């Protein structure tokens, strides 16, 4: 939970955060992978989604209108891949345009996608993406990620039914101890459920989704040891002592819960008003999942209770424009005092997920030893951060690389690029053998949860030139970005297997004998 810190927001601005900002050109950081690979991939999928919609249209006016949207997306793709300078956002009549363009003019004149702070450049890309549609005639509110969100939810039936059958019936909670146990369980569900971050997991199978979202009691107990920072007891004490989500309302811990969503599609999986309504109505009436009558009835009961809470004003959805701005939470009071005051009236504010964590900490390179209470926004609000952490998205410095004992890590360096686990189907490792080396690469369609069974192995033997050629042939088809370090790794293995002989002792001849 929030505590007072040593950072004064008066001396901080978007181009000059409390610590050095992560930027796309930092090859040692996750920012480089996001800006250079992930964002173009996400935008490419957004274009594909729009083309699917285009091919379903019959009205010529709508077709031409959507074609213009696609052309604007193509321009954005060229700007992103070409690392163009950040330009003002076209005025689409939305109230946030002036704020965006003022921020660009004041802090980011001449900056490009890679040189601007990562958190701003990434947000700018999503605002530009929305403007591709917001200036259109028929598709102003088109969500390029809606189809993907629906599809991922539809493939999440295992976790959905686990939760629905567990929590469909109203709780009969006799005392505070029982409430506390359920409260702890639900918090873990919220924490590990955030594994399905569509902006980070750009390629996911149904089996991957099931494994990530497992919410059974045994699974939660097994993963509790992985929680590094846990203030859940403070949260419980804060809530249980106030007389004033589903469990909070049922248990009497809260009489109203506000959900702060986004006005338009944002960072792929962030919730919009359309998503909110679709989720509740799908639970009440939809037929997304194949399940037993008991499971389907449980889901329907859960959805109907949520709908009733919404009608009674106990669950409220709001979408303030600050959440889709380029500012971090350091500037909340300065930019949106109305939102700050609204949050200040809450007993507790929950920030959930990776983006909220980044905006709380200004997404900058604080030394790894920096206490969290010093890296965050001011403690004027009573808030809690709920986030599944990734060791690749953490405060770090290039002068202090961490080594890794992870199997299959090509150069034994703790890095997103070289990690075999996080790269899934593109994992690559090279191991020494008695003679030569062994290249270990992931099979194309191997399930990620059966790690040891999913490798293709290639023996590299013979002379050095032959070994280098064999390595290049394998690596260029799986991980061309790792070609040079792979050849260097094989070279080092060969050098270790053929140590240089000591120079022979010179024979002393002539008068020196």
Automatic annotation (TrEMBL):
<keyword id="KW-0378">Hydrolase</keyword>
<dbReference type="Pfam" id="PF01937">
    <property type="entry name" value="ARMT1-like_dom"/>
</dbReference>
<dbReference type="GO" id="GO:0006974">
    <property type="term" value="P:DNA damage response"/>
</dbReference>
<keyword id="KW-0479">Metal-binding</keyword>
<dbReference type="InterPro" id="IPR036075">
    <property type="entry name" value="ARMT-1-like_metal-bd_sf"/>
</dbReference>
<dbReference type="GO" id="GO:0005634">
    <property type="term" value="C:nucleus"/>
</dbReference>
<protein>
    <recommendedName>
        <fullName>Sugar phosphate phosphatase</fullName>
        <ecNumber>3.1.3.-</ecNumber>
    </recommendedName>
</protein>
<dbReference type="GO" id="GO:0046872">
    <property type="term" value="F:metal ion binding"/>
</dbReference>
<dbReference type="InterPro" id="IPR002791">
    <property type="entry name" value="ARMT1-like_metal-bd"/>
</dbReference>
<feature type="domain" description="Damage-control phosphatase ARMT1-like metal-binding">
    <location>
        <begin position="245"/>
        <end position="383"/>
    </location>
</feature>
<dbReference type="GO" id="GO:0016791">
    <property type="term" value="F:phosphatase activity"/>
</dbReference>
<comment type="similarity">
    <text>Belongs to the damage-control phosphatase family. Sugar phosphate phosphatase III subfamily.</text>
</comment>
<dbReference type="InterPro" id="IPR039763">
    <property type="entry name" value="ARMT1"/>
</dbReference>
<keyword id="KW-0464">Manganese</keyword>
<comment type="function">
    <text>Metal-dependent phosphatase that shows phosphatase activity against several substrates, including fructose-1-phosphate and fructose-6-phosphate. Its preference for fructose-1-phosphate, a strong glycating agent that causes DNA damage rather than a canonical yeast metabolite, suggests a damage-control function in hexose phosphate metabolism.</text>
</comment>
